[in-house]
Design goal:
Number of strands: 25
Helix content: 25-40%
Largest sheet: 8 strands, parallel, barrel
Number of helices: 22
Shape: globular
Oligomer: single chain
Structural class: alpha/beta
Strand content: 15-25%
C-alpha cells in the first residue's frame, strides 16, 4: 500500500487494502498511467469522506449481510418520474402507494439533464451531475432517497456509460477543436478508419440511425455514434474518461442511489476488426467499477444491461473471487415468454429456464414481463429451426400476432424500427394490452375481459416464480393500456415505444378499492401473489429451481426448493382448459385456498395457474 493512504480512515483503509493490488494491476495493465491511478485513489477517499453518516450506516449493514438483495422480499418497479408523478417531489408524495404495491426497489428511468428532442428517452446525457430541470434538483433527489431509505425502499438509476449528448460540456469543447476533449471521443478527419469499423460493427438502429459514425461539418470530422447522431461514444482507452465517469458514479452514489444500472455496458470498448461488443476490456472496466464501489460505497449494487441470452451474459457476473455485476437482466426469457404466448408452446421457454437453473445460484437476474423498451425477437432460432420454424417468417408471425392480425390474437400494439431490408421489427405495447384487456374493453366483452385479466395475473405469477427478483413496469399493477396520444407530440410521434410510456393514470389507480373494477382485480391479484412470495422461503433468489414435465406443450411447470420448503407452479399458456400430468408422489396444497391438490393430474383452466406447496 502506498504511503499516501496510511493516515486515512480505518474503514476506508481496510477496504482499500483488500482491493488495492488488483485494482492497480488492472488499471496499469489497461492504461499504463501511474499518475492517473494515484489521482483516482485520492479522489476515492474524498468521495468516501463526503458520504454522509446515514449512507455509511447502510454500507456497514450491507457489508455484514452481503446477500441482503437475494432474499424473497425484493420486489421492484420501474417508472418515469414525469409520467408517474410529475417530478421528483411528486414521486416522494407517492411513496405510500409504492409501499402498498409491496415494492421496495424503484428504478427511476433516466432523469439526468438532456436535450428535448434529442434525448433518446433520457439516454443522451447533457450533464451527469444535474437533474433535468423540469423534474427537480439534486437536492430533491437526495431528499427522495432519504425518504425511500426511511421506508426501506431502494433507488435504482440509469448510468449511461457508452456516450454523452452532443450538448455535453466535453462534446462542445471537442466540437471547437480542443484536442484534450476530442480525445475523449472517437474523432477522425477522414473516413478511412471509420470505414474499417463499419466492416465489422453491426448497426443498432439501421432504419432510424444507420451507420456508426456521424459527419460534423462544424469541425470537419467524423465522430463515432453507435446509437444516434446526437449521442457521441466515449473513448474508454483514455484514462481521463474512465476516471471522470467513475467520479460521476460516486457523486450519484453519495446522493443516495442504491443500484447503478450500467446502460449499454457491452459497447464501451472499441477495437477495429471486432463487433465492438463484449470485448475483454469491458470486463476489466466493470471489475474495477465493482472494486471502486466496494471501497467507497459497498451498499451500492451494479446492474448490467446486457441484452443476450442468460448463458451468454454470465461473464458479466464475473467469478466468485473477482465479481463484476451484482445483477443482470433476464432479457431473452422475457422475449421468449411472449413467443410462448403467441405459440401456446412452452418448449423453448422451458429450455431457457433450465439453462438459468443450471447457473450458479449466486447469480441474480432481474425478471420482468415488460419494460420501457421494445421487445426484440432475439430468440433461440437454432432450437426453433429444429422444428422447421424459420427466423424471418416467425418474427413476422410474432409481430402480426401481437398487432392482432394472426393466431387468434387478442393483443394490441405497434411495431418499432421496422427494417424493410431484413423484414425485421420490434414490438411495443403494455402487458395488459398484449394480454387482451384493451381488446375486450373496446368490444365490451365481459367473458373475454375476465379471461384477459386472468392471463395477466398468470403471466405475473409465472414471472414471480422465475429465479431472481421480479420487477413491474409502472402501470402494470393496475392494467394500464396502450397510450396512443404520443402520436400528437412531434418529439415522440416517430417512436412507437411511447405507446407503453404513457402517464400514470391516477384516476384509474383510484379504483383499486372498487372490487368490481379491472384495476382492483389486477392490483389485488398481484398483491396477493407478492405477499405469498414474501412469505414462502422457496422464493429466495438463490433457491433451487427446475422445470417439470407436464406432457402438454401449453403447460409450464416450475419447481422451487429452499431449506426444506418445496413449491411447484403450473401455468397454462393456452386459452383452453388443460390437464398437467406430473410424476410427483408428494402431497401438495394450493397456497391461496389451502385445499389439497392431486398433482398426478391437475386440471388447469385456460390462461390459469396454480402455486402448490408440498405438505
Amino acid at each position: 500500500m502506498e504511503s499516501s493512504t496510511k493516515t486515512k480512515d480505518a474503514v476506508f483503509q481496510k477496504r482499500m487494502e483488500r482491493h488495492f493490488d488488483e485494482l492497480k494491476w488492472l488499471y496499469i495493465e489497461l492504461y499504463g498511467n501511474d499518475e492517473m491511478f494515484e489521482e483516482l485513489c485520492d479522489r476515492l477517499y474524498r468521495f468516501y469522506e463526503e458520504r454522509n453518516d446515514d449512507l455509511k450506516k447502510i454500507d456497514a449493514d450491507r457489508e455484514a449481510d452481503a446477500n441482503w438483495y437475494k432474499k424473497n422480499d425484493m420486489m421492484g418497479m420501474m417508472l418515469y418520474i414525469d409520467n408517474f408523478a410529475g417530478d421528483i417531489k411528486g414521486v416522494e408524495s407517492k411513496l405510500d402507494y409504492i409501499e402498498r404495491c409491496n415494492v421496495n426497489y424503484i428504478h427511476l428511468m433516466p432523469f439526468l439533464d438532456t436535450v428535448e428532442g434529442k434525448s433518446d428517452g433520457g439516454y443522451a446525457v447533457k450533464d451527469f451531475r444535474t437533474v433535468r430541470p423540469d423534474l427537480g434538483t439534486m437536492d430533491d433527489l437526495e431528499h427522495l432517497t432519504k425518504a425511500c431509505h426511511d421506508k426501506n425502499i431502494n433507488i435504482c438509476m440509469d448510468f449511461v456509460m457508452n456516450h454523452t449528448s452532443e450538448e455535453h460540456e466535453w462534446a462542445k469543447k471537442a466540437l471547437e477543436g480542443d484536442g484534450e476533449y476530442m480525445s475523449r471521443y472517437f474523432f477522425f478527419d477522414n473516413y478511412w478508419i471509420p470505414e474499417q469499423y463499419e466492416r465489422t460493427v453491426p448497426q443498432v438502429f439501421p432504419s432510424t440511425a444507420p451507420g456508426n459514425f456521424t459527419w460534423l461539418d462544424e469541425c470537419k470530422h467524423f465522430v463515432m455514434t453507435t446509437f444516434y447522431p446526437y449521442q457521441w461514444d466515449l473513448n474508454y482507452k483514455n484514462p481521463r474518461v474512465f476516471n471522470e465517469m467513475m467520479y460521476n458514479v460516486l457523486y450519484l452514489a453519495n446522493k443516495g442511489i442504491d443500484v447503478v444500472r450500467l446502460d449499454a455496458v457491452p459497447y464501451i470498448w472499441k477495437e477495429i476488426g471486432t463487433s465492438c461488443r463484449n470485448l475483454p476490456q469491458v470486463h476489466t472496466i466493470v471489475r474495477m467499477m465493482r472494486m471502486i464501489c466496494e471501497i467507497v460505497c459497498p451498499s451500492v449494487l451494479l446492474l448490467g444491461e446486457v441484452v443476450m441470452e442468460p448463458a451468454k451474459v454470465v461473464p458479466y457476473f464475473g467469478t466468485v473471487d473477482k465479481p463484476e455485476c451484482h445483477m443482470l437482466y433476464n432479457v431473452t426469457t422475457m422475449a421468449t415468454t411472449w413467443h410462448t404466448v403467441a405459440t401456446r408452446d412452452t418448449r423453448l421457454l422451458k429450455k431457457q429456464l433450465d439453462i438459468v437453473s443450471w447457473l450458479p445460484k449466486d447469480y441474480v437476474f432481474l425478471n420482468y414481463l415488460r419494460c420501457h423498451d421494445d421487445i426484440g425477437w432475439g430468440l433461440d432460432f437454432d432450437t426453433l429451426g429444429q422444428d422447421g420454424i424459420g427466423e424471418i417468417s416467425h418474427k413476422r408471425y410474432l409481430n402480426d400476432y401481437f398487432q392482432g392480425y394472426a393466431g387468434d390474437s387478442n393483443s394490441r400494439g405497434e411495431l418499432y424500427n421496422w427494417d424493410p431490408v431484413t423484414q425485421d421489427a420490434r414490438f411495443c405495447a403494455t402487458t395488459a394490452s398484449m394480454c387482451g384487456i384493451e381488446k375486450a374493453l373496446y368490444e365490451q366483452d365481459e367473458a373475454a375481459l375476465e379471461k384477459a385479466i386472468q392471463y395477466d395475473l398468470t403471466l405475473h405469477a409465472y414471472m414471480f416464480m422465475q429465479s431472481g427478483i421480479p420487477v413491474l413496469y409502472s402501470g402494470d399493477e393496475i392494467g394500464q393500456l396502450n397510450d396512443y396520444t404520443y402520436k400528437d407530440d412531434p418529439n415522440k410521434a416517430t417512436d412507437s415505444r411511447y405507446i407503453h410510456r404513457g402517464k400514470m393514470r391516477w384516476d384509474l389507480a383510484a379504483k383499486i378499492d372498487d372490487p368490481d373494477s379491472v384495476e382492483a382485480k389486477i392490483f389485488n391479484g398481484l398483491s396477493e401473489l407478492e405477499k405469498k412470495r414474501k412469505a414462502e422461503k422457496a422464493f429466495m433468489s438463490n433457491a433451487d429451481m427446475w422445470t417439470i414435465e407436464t406432457y402438454d406443450p401449453a403447460i409450464l411447470c416450475i419447481g422451487r426448493y429452499y431449506d426444506g420448503d418445496k413449491m411447484i407452479g403450473l401455468f397454462n399458456f393456452s386459452e383452453f382448459d388443460k390437464t398437467a400430468w406430473l410424476h410427483e408422489k408428494d402431497t401438495y396444497v394450493d397456497v391461496f385456498t389451502g385445499k389439497e391438490v392431486d398433482v398426478k393430474g391437475v386440471d388447469i383452466p385456460g390462461y390459469g395457474f396454480y402455486w402448490l406447496k408440498q405438505k
